[in-house]
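Sample intake sheet
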Amino acid sequence: METMLLYARLFYEFCKTGLFAVGGGLATLPFLSEMGQATGWFTTKDLADMVAVSESTPGPLGVNMATYVGYTVAGVPGSIAATLGLVFPSVVIVLIVAGILHAFKDSPVVQGIFKGLRPASLALITAAGLSVARIALLNTDAFAATGKILDLFNWKCILLAVILWFCYRKWKLHPIVYIAISAVIGVVFQL
C-alpha cells in the first residue's frame, strides 16, 4: 500500500510539473527544485547532476529527468509513474488544443494567447539556466565557511566554461562533443 502511494505521489508531482512547465525541459527546473525541497527526494546538487545526465542522454530533458527521479526514488515502476505523470498533461492538452485550434487558428485571441506564453516560457527557461549556472559556478558552502569572496567561485568550472565557450565559438562542433569533453574533464579533475 505504501509503495502504491509513492507511485501515485510521483505521478501527481510530475503531473503538476508537466501541466505548468510551459517551454520545454529547462522550464521544468524551477518546479523540480521546489519538488526536491518539498519531498526530500533529491537535493539541489542532485538536480544539477540530473541536468548533466539528462542533457547528455537521448530524449527530452524533462522526460529524462522525470525518469531519473522516479528510478532513484522507486525503481523502474517509479520511473514509469514519474514519466507518465510528466507527459500525461501534455498529451491531454495537445489532444484538446488540436481539436479546438483548427477552428480558431486565425482568431486574434488565440494569437494573443500564444504571444503571451512566449515571455513566460523565456522567463522560466532563463530562471532555470541561472539556477544551473549558480549551482555549477558558485560554491556557497565554501564561502559560508570562510567568508572569503574568492572561495565563492568554483574557479575550475568557470575556467572550463570559458574554454569550452571559446572552443565552440571557434570550431562550432556538435554540442555532444563538448558534453563528452566536459564529462571527461569532470572525472579527471573531479569537478
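Comment: The first helix runs from residue 2 to 20. The chain has eight helices and no strands.
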